[in-house]
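Practice problem 4.
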């Protein structure tokens, strides 16, 4: 998974036009999403007392789509940074910084929208004797076989976070990645947005899959497709070691002003053009909050160094 996504010729570091060609995220679905995040950033800014420099850091920045959409919505003192292993996209605004690692001493908001599901992990399954073994895969064909036994660190994580036997996805690398990212925030917030599950709803057969060209495909780790697995979101939340709120995207976006409501029909008579614009916005909003789709994503928001002002974020 590491090699197929981030190695030479890997899916996320290739010279293609980027992930947007292969799967649809909230960032790509509608500018309403960036508008909602801008309102959250405004709340973080207020809770910080409007610092001289307000950091907005996007981890797993793709080709910079989110930061590009946010740039005109934020104050001039906002410092925007994309974190991505791929090379800086051609044409990205000069005022958006681009780097391969999360910067230190962030004062503002760190955002990771559908990043954690692409942090590589191991998959394991039971053998005929009830022993948990790593699943190995032939990169060129996707053919699976059982390899060696999982190690003590894996067993410890599984015992706490995925106790039911069966095919499992060992999520502690995501816990470590998120804890490391959150530790870079000096004051402000850290927001992870992703599809995932909690301990009492772990999927029996796991979630590992692939995406290419807008279609779900076998997760062959040869660099030709996205290889992704849902996030054990409760484990990630606990790993950061700081206060957090956990809610579905549907609830989060409604709290930030997106409800998907259709405009009143009377507007079609008095302002036909405005009605059509409002109708299009309602459709886009409805997609973002659809419970069976993007609205079912988790929003994990940590408050760092804000004290009681952290409650201002919602």
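Answer key:
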């Amino acid at each position: 998974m590491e090699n197929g996504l981030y190695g030479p010729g890997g899916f996320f570091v290739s010279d293609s036009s980027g992930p947007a060609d292969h799967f649809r995220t909230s960032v790509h679905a509608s500018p309403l999403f960036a508008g909602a995040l801008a309102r959250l950033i405004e709340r973080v800014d207020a809770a910080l007392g409007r610092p001289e420099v307000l950091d907005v850091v996007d981890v797993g920045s793709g080709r910079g789509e989110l930061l590009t959409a946010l740039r005109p919505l934020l104050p001039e003192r906002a410092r925007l940074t994309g974190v991505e292993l791929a090379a800086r996209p051609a044409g990205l605004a000069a005022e958006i910084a681009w780097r391969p690692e999360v910067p230190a001493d962030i004062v503002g908001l760190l955002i990771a929208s559908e990043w954690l599901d692409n942090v590589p992990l191991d998959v394991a399954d039971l053998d005929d004797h009830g022993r948990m073994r790593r699943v190995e895969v032939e990169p060129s064909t996707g053919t699976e076989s059982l390899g060696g036994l999982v190690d003590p660190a894996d067993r410890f994580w599984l015992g706490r976070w995925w106790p039911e036997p069966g095919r499992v996805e060992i999520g502690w690398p995501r816990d470590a990645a998120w804890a490391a990212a959150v530790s870079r925030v000096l004051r402000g917030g850290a927001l992870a947005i992703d599809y995932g599950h909690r301990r009492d709803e772990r999927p029996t057969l796991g979630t590992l899959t692939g995406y290419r060209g807008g279609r779900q495909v076998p997760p062959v780790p040869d660099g030709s497709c996205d290889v992704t697995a849902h996030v054990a979101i409760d484990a990630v939340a606990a790993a950061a070691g700081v206060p957090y709120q956990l809610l579905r995207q549907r609830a989060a976006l409604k709290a930030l002003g997106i409800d998907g409501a259709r405009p009143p029909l009377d507007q079609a008579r008095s302002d036909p053009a405005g009605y059509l614009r409002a109708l299009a916005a309602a459709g886009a909003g409805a997609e973002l909050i659809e419970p069976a789709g993007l609205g079912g994503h988790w929003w994990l928001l940590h408050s760092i160094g804000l004290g009681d002002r952290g409650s201002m974020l919602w």
